[in-house]
Amino acid sequence: MVHSYSFWVFGYGSLIWRPGFEFISAQGGLLCGFHRSLCIYSHLYRGTPEKPGLVFGLLPGGSCRGRAFEISSDKWAGVLSYLRERETQVYREVRGPIKLDDGRKVEALSFVANEDHAQFAGGLSIEEKLALVDSSQGQTGSNRDYIFNTMEHLTQLGISDRRLDNICRLLEQKQVS
């Protein structure tokens, strides 16, 4: 474990491509014990309360490759405040080890799906997920764009996500039909 005067945040969805905070460095990282899942109803950024979208959360089991951000100690309080406002109460803050692409292990803050929150959508079928993603729009854009942006940026980082690949393929087929 590296001990330094910096903090780390693990991003696995829109944080990968739109962090919204200043950081020292960023690189790929692996979080064990959780996997990326479309399991959070979005009533603001990618949907509305009347027509919710879906965004990613971390659920127990497996592992997740994402992007790790190193934040200087003098910026940490502001970044943490920003992330708490952005991620809201639909996520729980979890601190734990991640393995960086450069081989180091560091403690990082991750935002894990709060399965007790009313916006938790963990029991949806793939068909229900596709219907929501295909038709929802929020303050920051369409739910489809969120999915495809995440996929594009994971690919740029050399990260493969079988579940997300499948969702993107099905959304593309749906658009053609």
From TrEMBL:
Q: What class of enzyme is it?
A: lyase
Q: What is its EC number?
A: 4.3.2.7
One Pfam assignment: ChaC
For this UniProt entry, the molecular function terms from Gene Ontology, in alphabetical order, are:
glutathione specific gamma-glutamylcyclotransferase activity
Alphabetized InterPro entries for the sequence: ChaC, GGCT-like, GGCT-like_sf
Q: Which keywords describe this protein according to UniProt?
A: Lyase
Q: Which residues form a coiled coil?
A: none
Entry-linked PANTHER family: CATION TRANSPORT PROTEIN CHAC-RELATED (PTHR12192), GLUTATHIONE-SPECIFIC GAMMA-GLUTAMYLCYCLOTRANSFERASE 2 (PTHR12192:SF2)
| Name of this chain's protein | glutathione-specific gamma-glutamylcyclotransferase
GO BP terms: namely:
glutathione catabolic process
Can you cite an annotated GO cellular component?
cytoplasm
